[in-house]
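Input sequence (270 aa), recorded before submission:
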Amino acid sequence: MIHVTNPALLQRQVKVSVVGAGGTGSQILTGLAQLHTAMQSLGHPGGLSVTVWDDDLVSVANVGRQMYFPSDVGMPKATVLVHRINMTMGTNWKAEVQKIGGGSKRQFPSGNDDIVIGCVDNRKGRAAILAYCRSVGGAYWLDIGNREDDGQAVLGMVYPNHRKNDVGRLPHVADLFPEVIDVNADDRDNAPSCSLAEALEKQSLFINRGVSLWALNLLWQMFRYGQIEYHGVFVNLKTGRSNPLGIDWEVWKRFGYKLPRRGKHLRQVA
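Predicted structure, token format:
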């Protein structure tokens, strides 16, 4: 099967929120700037309007593994990245130096978010993103996560007050892996590192870039070709392997997801 991109996203500016501006988020923002430019050059009306959410400051340990320079230390991560892109690409993207959720709801002049990209690796953060997607009227949710050498990107759709097997809806990461939003479970150690060397003991140098590349390619396919043939990928840099997450009812069933009926956004390949 394939997933057909919501036609509205090919006919107007696309509103995107990026949650988290750390190792993955900083890579994603750089790629989104490229995607925005490519979309406009190919005739998309408006490209991307992006808001970055992060309440953290750049630390010395971030320099070298994340997309920050020594001169950025002490500055808000979201602000640094957005200002850099705006100055170099002529965009008007926005920074929110706060966590998403907690009653916050970012309103845009012509509507709400179309795509929310989660670059957080903790259950509380993912639960807040899911709640936010529902609060803004529903959106694509692109979740990106990683461990030391492996990671995944999963693109799904969130409808407000949806049933688990709504017609035509791509299951999101919490549909397939409910434990990722279980705030009562223990998270892995998310304590900040004091140095780059310490950070590299927890995560491989290029795992964030590796997973981000696959996530960005999903978006590229959505906007370049108007459809995708898979909606996620599992990547392992240590073994050199990657495995796609197919748009396949039998695949979803193995994750415990009830088989949805065919709808307007899912159709069988001829």
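Checked by second reader. DSSP finds seven helices and eleven strands in the chain.
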